[in-house]
Design a protein that fits this description.
Blueprint (H helix, E strand, L loop, with lengths): L5 H45 L4 H11 L2 H10 L7 H7 L11 H12 L7 E4 L5 E2 L3 E8 L5 E7 L3 H22 L6 H14 L2 H15 L7 E2 L3 E4 L3 E5 L4 E2 L3 H6 L4 H17 L5 E2 L7 E5 L8 E5 L5 E2 L3 H16 L2 H12 L6 H9 L3 H4 L9 H24 L1
Parallel strand pairs: 5-11
Antiparallel strand pairs: 1-3, 2-3, 3-4, 4-7, 6-7, 8-10, 9-12, 10-11
Helix pairs in contact: 1-2, 1-6, 2-3, 3-4, 6-7, 11-12
Length: 405
């Protein structure tokens, strides 16, 4: 620094020291996160052989590490078709108990990603989020110049630092569990997360998905789907039109507004059937209760409600040939045509003849003997007992292995 001499040298030394301190802190926290997972894994494997109960310890580790571990716990809480009731119920709090990032962290991310502070984009910006999930949180704001009320989805800033390590820890955990308990191979879950997370963390891609879906359904007559307009997006920030609604399972709201439950159900089926089977339409792959809302709309001719679809981060394109085969498989299920069912189950999912009874029961939730006669018949008490007994006689392990395949 020939022009500035000692001052420049001192500043350079400060930057170097700060960088070294950041690296040391990162390494320390990384070691702590890894240690939590490894300790819980070792203790859980020991306890499994002794008591079969270690779900509370696992919950604490997921909560402390946060990040994608919260999302993993949410996946596990919904897997009541695979995991013991004690596990799924223990993880239910993770569906609502998500960490919130501070306003200061969000402000710093805005400056990093857009080159401007929050105040340059909005006349006002609510400091408290209206909702927080495992990967992001949503704030209400008012656009400059237009006064439009918008929802601003912001990614948790810390994710960028920890996702690579956390994915590696998840992959390692399931690989170890597979070696100790080969009958319960859940590696497919970590593989799925590695494939889906990069998409879910790209909010610019989410904005593109939302625009494409809105355009596709805008020309479908009498379809009550509403997708909020996307104003602009970056990789970690998405600004959308704010449209509020009620959960689709809010029966009090539906009844008080004379919204027919059967019509809502039929409209949802129509929307997602279009995504699965329609031409030039991708499938929304995260349609849980928090991502679908309903609101009263007396201006429509056929329906008196709108269905609002949020969170367009995870979509899949289904090849046309697969759509056709999948449709034929379900038509065969409805017709109780077992030979055709077997043919298209193999074409759709590579299901062999010896696996077919389990596959047929898994996709219909019915006893295989009923599926081969009439899937539209009512469930008898005997059938419920048969299914319940089968789950305790090894069907669960077979189902896990089938999913792993």
């Amino acid at each position: 620094c020939p022009l500035y001499g000692r001052d420049c040298q001192e500043n350079t030394e400060k930057v170097i020291k700060a960088t070294i301190l950041d690296d040391v802190q990162h390494a320390a926290v990384a070691a702590q996160r890894s240690s939590r997972v490894l300790q819980a894994l070792m203790k859980n494997m020991y306890d499994y052989r002794a008591t079969l109960q270690f779900e509370d310890r696992t919950l604490r580790v997921l909560e402390k590490n946060g990040s994608i571990f919260i999302k993993l716990g949410q996946h596990l809480s919904s897997m009541n078709y695979l995991l013991p009731l004690e596990w799924t119920q223990t993880f239910i709090p993770l569906q609502d108990k998500c960490p919130e990032s501070s306003y200061e962290a969000i402000e710093a991310m805005f400056i990093t990603d857009t080159g401007q502070p929050i105040s340059s984009h909005f006349d006002d910006f609510d400091r408290e989020p209206i909702g927080a999930a495992s990967l992001a949180q949503v704030h209400l704001a008012t656009m400059k110049h237009t006064g439009l009320r918008v929802a601003v989805k912001v990614q948790h800033p810390a994710l960028q630092e920890w996702v690579p390590l956390d994915l590696a820890l998840t992959r390692f955990t399931f690989a170890v569990l597979k070696n100790f308990f080969p009958a319960y191979d859940l590696e497919w879950l970590s593989n799925e997360m590695e494939q889906s997370l990069p998409q879910e963390l790209d909010f610019a891609l989410e904005g593109s998905n939302a625009r494409l879906t809105k355009r596709h359904f805008s020309v479908i007559k009498d379809c009550p789907l509403v997708v909020p307009d996307v104003l602009w997006g970056r990789k970690r920030i998405l600004v959308m039109e704010y449209i509020a609604g009620h959960r689709i399972d809010d029966l009090t709201y539906l009844d008080s507004n004379r919204i027919d439950r059967d019509e809502v159900s039929a409209a949802l089926a129509r929307i997602f059937n279009e995504m699965i089977f329609g031409d030039n339409c991708a499938l929304h792959c995260d349609p849980h209760g928090g991502n679908i809302a309903v609101r009263h709309n007396g201006q429509r001719q056929r329906h008196n409600f709108d269905i609002i679809l949020y969170d367009h981060g995870l979509y899949r394109e289904i090849p046309r040939e697969l759509k056709i085969d999948y449709a034929k498989m379900w038509l065969a299920v409805i017709d109780a045509d077992e030979q055709t069912m077997r043919k298209y189950a193999h074409r759709v999912a590579g299901i062999m003849d010896e696996q077919f009874p389990l596959f047929a029961s898994a996709i219909t939730g019915r006893d295989y003997r009923v599926v081969s006669k009439s899937v539209v018949s009512a469930r008898s008490q005997e059938e419920k007992e048969v299914i319940s007994g089968a789950m305790g006689e090894g069907m669960l392990q077979q189902l896990v292995q089938l999913l792993g395949q």
